[in-house]
Known about the structure:
Elements: H1 2-7, E1 8-16, E2 27-34, E3 40-47, H2 53-68, E4 77-83, E5 86-92
Antiparallel strand pairs: 1-2, 2-3, 3-5, 4-5
Amino acid sequence: MNCLKQVYLGFVTSSFCVSAAEMHLCRIVHLCRRLSDRKQVIIKQIPMEQMTADERQAALNEVMVLAMLNHPNIIRYYENFLEDTALMIVMEYAEGK
């Protein structure tokens, strides 16, 4: 992932699937450090190549909704970009207790 490596340094990756029958709905989440300010961020990777048109639209809608939200109790959205055939959504990292 060239773009990911140029702007973010990833060091932990996790993945989850909605169901085994819907493997194309799997998401990969990267815990990364933004190189510009060394801040930890989450990058959610959404593979788009096997999605239906409706599923692609839902992913794009997610980005639009995240971009509109601005509240201290909601994870902050930073940006999105395409990496190969995946939509990458960069969001605030909230450390668990």
